[in-house]
Amino acid sequence: MTIPLVVGIDGSEASLEAVDWAAEEAVRHEVPLHLVHAAVPDHAAADLIAAASERAWKAAPTVRLSSEVLHADAASALVSEGRNAFALVLGSRGLGDLAGMLLGSVSLAVAARADCPVVVVRGGAEYRDARFGRVVVGVEDGEGSGTAVRFASREAHVRRCRLVAVHAWSAPFGALSEPPPPSGFALEAHRRPPMQVLDDVLRGQAERYPDATVSRLVIKGAARQALLEAASGSDLLVVGARRRRGHLGLQLGLVNHALLHHAPCPIAVVPQV
Predict the structure, then answer these.
(1) Which residue, 49, 65, 68, 67, is CA-closest to 57?
(2) Helix-strand-coil percent breakdown of the chain, rounded to 5?
(3) Considering only Cβ atoms within 10 Å of each terminal Cβ, which end of the chain, N or C, has fewer?
(4) Helix, strand, or coil (residue 124)
């Protein structure tokens, strides 16, 4: 049985925009779409599910659609649903969030705890409708980006668009102002030249998607700013998240928190496997 793409709905306009986005995503990946409304209690649940289901059907009439009402805390219920989901899709703000909030509390909590990729649908219609033809993925040095790159590569493949891999680096205090050449002695053993970081993580994806169009972007500076600028002309921003040792949930970090609040386009947080 194919696991579904799960959408959390609460009746807000942001959650309905998430339904639209998820319906098209389900078509791309040929997976079922499952709508979930969770609240304690909610007498309007049936109406909310009916409205969201109608919207999903209009956006993607061929998708296998199901729905469910859960009488439970929304964040906990969605995290539980995510244990058997292709991905979780959420709106950027919910009905209960305070005016002026950049990201809803439920979306942030789910992004920090889910076992599967979580997509927070942000941005205007031009970003939600895949008009730019590119997917951006943030790549960090180390082993934390592999799962995110695989997710982003698959997204670019099904969308038939360009994948842009971005690695931001900053020289230690007193170091050279430019990245040294990959001579083998230029960097300490634990530091790789910035372009090698991208080459290493993308190597396996080139074999899987030989026809893919991939761009490598190395930026000296803060990762937050580099990724926000790259996302400004993109359909999807993908970032990885590490597991926290000894704790439940993910290590979102300051960069991911900032991106979840400020990204101009939908953003996917992909847990490291």
Answers:
(1) 65
(2) 40, 20, 40
(3) N
(4) coil
- DSSP-assigned letter for residue 179: P
Give backbone dihedrals phi and psi of 173, rounded to 5 degrees, phi first. Answer: -55, 125
**Distances, alpha carbon 170 to alpha carbons 82, 96, 141, in Å:** 35, 40, 12
Superfamily of domain 127-271: HUPs (3.40.50.620)
Say if CB 201 and CB 270 are below 8 A apart: no
Please name the residue ranges forming H helices in 30-69.
Answer: 45-59
Same fold, 5-121 and 127-271: yes
pLDDT score for 188: 40
User: Does position 35 have pLDDT exceeding 70, yes or no?
Assistant: yes
* C-alpha span between 164 and 147 (Å, rounded): 15
Mean pLDDT throughout 121-140?
93
- For 238, counting Cβ atoms within 10 Å of its Cβ (0-12 exposed, 13-18 middle, 19+ buried), the class is buried
CATH topology assigned to domain 5-121: Rossmann fold (3.40.50)
Neighbours of 131 (CB within 10 A): 10
Mean pLDDT of the chain: 86
Which two three-digit tokens encode residue 111? Answer: 């992004």
Label residue 189 by pLDDT band (50, 70, 90).
very low
The DSSP letter of residue 64 is -
* pLDDT band, very low/low/confident/very high, at 36 (cuts 50, 70, 90): very high
How far apart (Å, rounded) are the C-alpha atoms in residues 64 and 138? Answer: 32
Residue ranges per structural domain of the chain: 5-121, 127-271
